Amino acid sequence: MKLNYLVEITDPQTHMVKVKIQSKRPSNADYLDFFLPSWSPGSYLMREYSKNVRTIRAFNKGGEFLLLKQTAKGIWRVDFKNSEVKNDSEEFLLEYDIFCHELTVRTSHVDHSHAFLHGPSYLMGVLDQEMKDPEIEFKFPGLWSKLHTGMKDISDKRDRFLYTAENYDVLIDAPVEIGCHESDGFMHDGKEHHVIFYGDQFPHNYDLKQDMQKIVETVSSHFEGELPYDKYLFMTHFCKDKYGGLEHLNSTALQFDGRRLKNRRDYLNWMGLVAHEYFHTWNVKRIRPKELGPFNYTSEAYTRMHWLTEGLTSFMDDLLVYRSGLSTVEEYLEIIKGFLNRYISIPGKKFHSLEESSFNAWIKLYRPDENSNNSSISYYLKGGLVFSTLHFELKRKGKSINDLLNSLWKRYLDNPEVGVESEEVMAMIEEIGGKEVRENFEARISTTEDIDFETFYKEIGCEFIWDETPLPYVGANLNYEGDRAVIESVTLDSPAHKAGLNAGDEIIAINRIRFLKDDFAKLEEMVSPGQTYEFVVARLGKLFNLDVRVENRPKVLKEIKVVDKKKVEEVFLN
Fold first, then answer.
1. Do 553 and 447 contact (CB within 8 A), yes or no?
2. 327 and 451 assigned to the same domain
3. Structure confidence by residue, pLDDT tens digits, 551-574
4. CATH at 531
5. pTM for this predicted structure
6. 8 Å CB contact between 232 and 149
7. Contact 412, 286 (CB under 8 A)
8. Is the residue at 234 inside a domain?
9. Which of 172, 259, 414, 497 is deepest in the core (most CB within 10 A)?
10. d(C-alpha 246, C-alpha 254), whole Å
């Protein structure tokens, strides 16, 4: 079944997009079920994009209304058999208006300045039908001069913005940026790489395009053969307080606060994001767990293997920035120190394995609440750290993570239609590093056993320097509403948790003295470990007195000190 889309933006300030789908129903089809996806591959949360549909109608070739009824969330049935029409043609038109005003990498955003269109959020498909070679045309205000997308351009005379894709999956896996954005590019391995920037950057000292090219060259060098795409696009939104990325088949959507690029640490964070999403071109968009494709866009796609999709990618991203020559080994270890401190501080690591965290992504990772850190662990964070231990163990055997990448890529090339299973990955690890390495890795993804990272880093030529300064610790994380301090979350087994402080409590006073925002900034100067303090809190409109016994702050990793620089560099560079 071939679908022809027309996407029209006439008044971008209203944030509305009109989509028309022309097609011809199969002769044996009494009805067709059109759907708008509930989620986006790479972002595992039911986002229910159909909530943004305003009006929807269906017509036959003669312009007569066809019977159209919504049958489920995001699903509409065009009933040809029971439609009272004079001209019973097989050709039909479905049109709908959809509201697009959420600027994330997984939603669509249209305003006076641009349009960013994320496929799953605005393009309907047809259930139980093979949708081959769809064509899509875009019409938008004449003041907008550019359109960039990973779709294949088929406008012969360049007078129309007309594109096609191999099928519906590929069509919605190609985001679109329209407007007057900045665009540039470079060539690598004989293929075009487009660099697109929407929004504002503050002055900085870096050549973004040149450094992104270094990332492309370094990442691609880890995989044999030619690049697995004809062209590639980096679509970046530089907007205040934004951060995130989403991988696509031959492009990525990125968001970052452009004001922060001048700061060296933030710039490396930005380059790590670029490396992370570009690495996904191989790992996730090609190498993938069996459960992640072909997709059912109306229900969850459960997998226990996000330790592979995101864990491996999270280990490689900042490492690839280092291997690209964009950071020093000391800067790289400073980033790793931050990850280790986060990992150490999360009580939830004692309750959720990587496999469990992966399976529950739909209800935990993408739906954080006050108890998330107490009950689970991110497969990004722990997954990346676990893959670092695998790399270290493989180095003992004269191998490295590169050998696993080669095996995974070869497996994909041998059978690209079918995703990989956990047992296959374990067999690869055993073949490369032996049975013990496999068993150790399996235990780290399937159990909650503690991991001795300090010993691993000591072996590769590093020393952990701990900060055990006796500072007061309460364990309540605060939000401020004006000058008022409201508890956002309470850390498991902390003094706040033991005393019965709750998320949502407003701290009114400590030892009968009123405490406001500025006072909490100086709390460490006012309270002492081992002492008990009377907290007055407001909870659900009532006042409570709670005794909190302050403890010493848990130790913090202050530095990963390089003892043997040559050894450390060899471990991470190869």
1. no
2. yes
3. 999 999 999 999 999 999 999 999
4. 2.30.42.10
5. 0.96
6. no
7. yes
8. yes
9. 172
10. 7
